[in-house]
């Protein structure tokens, strides 16, 4: 289908996400015919470097042969079977692998991030109910948090543009001060600011714990808030406070999981000196299970190939549902729960991490990108920051249209950026090469220069 044909038919029939459709009267859609590596191509061969991994999902490039082959092989065996009453090899293998990686031994599946949030919230609430604490029905999250846009997930999300319209439909939840370092006072260190936010959290939890089921957070980086990064000491303190006051901690690693922050999971970077049992840990041996009662995973889990999400939790939570009574069980389901094709894509993605030593390679690549980004400091920008394979800065500009204009200016130069407010960020596929990095940064330089 030609570009023009695709565009006009799309506008007739497709209601695009996160979009005021009328704006497309003046602001064309981008028609994409195929992908390869970090590149997206239209029907006429014009290409765009996908610096945002297509909404943060594509970890190892488009047209990844290993993931593609794994899905093809699985397709010849079994494309789908319902997971209630039935099981299959890909879902078992994936659950075992995720359990080993996180220390959380029980995996529940859905198909998108928002559903994972819903599952974690419902499971936490139901755990307390099954444990005779049915007054623990409320949730807290951070200011500027993003946990998805279904009604439950939106209730703990704190982004006005997504939330305000639907406020009458949502459950009430309280937002704790965000440890995002950009919100600190002048002269305050990231660590001091995170500790100050943790104090506010402790105060709130100490007063409300009898009605609180869980605290849900995005570990280390509040991505949708514009890559708001914070000191890991906050995770450690949040764990301590939640343990002291018997409140669950839900780690929403939908965006930051699978290597984005440099560790396999961001929670590992809390670097706790002691494990749950008070045993001294080696440096760098912190597991997700030391921090979180639940972890939500999605986005990169299949390398961007198929929709899949998972919530993993502890044996303690699992046991509270294990009973002769059906009603005490977790009676939640989605038609595609644990889809074999999606699980096979996830297994192939995890296999790439292992065989390619991706975490180690990403450390080197991250340092290379940080170094190249120094060139951007000539521009009117602030808060140049990174965390593993997430890189961001905030343009200093009076232009209220900055995000839209810079998005368009980048497309004209063959670069897909998706600025959030005045924040420009890179979350490239891990397979990005040095030449591609150089192009991404020099094109971004020109974009900011042309747009401020
Ligand atoms: C994207 C995202 C979600 C929602 O996932 P969807 O698959 O878009 O529903 C939830 N939490 C975080 C942190 C995310 O980045």
Task: For this entry, give a set of tags.
7-stranded mixed beta sheet; binds pyridoxal-5'-phosphate; 15 helices; globular; 4-stranded mixed beta sheet; Aspartate Aminotransferase, domain 1; alpha/beta; 452 residues; Aspartate Aminotransferase, domain 2
Bound molecules: pyridoxal-5'-phosphate
Report the total helices. 15
Strand content: 5-15%
Q: Class of the largest domain, according to the CATH hierarchy?
A: Alpha Beta
Coarse morphology = globular
- CATH architecture group name of the largest domain: 3-Layer(aba) Sandwich
- Order of strands, main sheet, comes to 4-12-11-10-7-5-6
Write up this protein.
There is one protein chain. The protein is an alpha/beta fold and 452 residues long. It folds into two domains: 126 residues, Alpha-Beta Complex (Aspartate Aminotransferase, domain 1); 290 residues, Type I PLP-dependent aspartate aminotransferase-like (Major domain) (Aspartate Aminotransferase, domain 2, 3-Layer(aba) Sandwich). Helices cover 38% and strands 15% of the residues. Strand 8 and strand 9 form a beta hairpin. The radius of gyration is 22 Å and the shape is globular. The protein starts with a helix and ends with a helix. The model has no long low-confidence stretch (mean pLDDT 96).
Question: Can you lay out the helices and strands and say which pair or pack?
Answer:
Elements: H1 3-13, E1 34-36, E2 39-41, E3 47-50, H2 53-56, H3 65-77, H4 89-102, E4 106-110, H5 113-130, E5 138-142, H6 151-155, H7 160-163, E6 174-176, H8 190-208, E7 212-217, E8 221-222, E9 228-229, H9 233-244, E10 248-252, H10 288-291, E11 294-297, E12 309-313, H11 315-321, H12 340-356, H13 358-373, E13 381-387, E14 390-395, H14 402-412, E15 415-416, E16 423-426, H15 434-451
Parallel strand pairs: 3-15, 5-6, 5-7, 7-10, 10-11
Antiparallel strand pairs: 1-2, 2-3, 4-12, 8-9, 11-12, 13-14, 14-16
Helix pairs in contact: 3-12, 4-12, 5-11, 8-9, 13-15, 14-15
The protein binds pyridoxal-5'-phosphate (PLP).
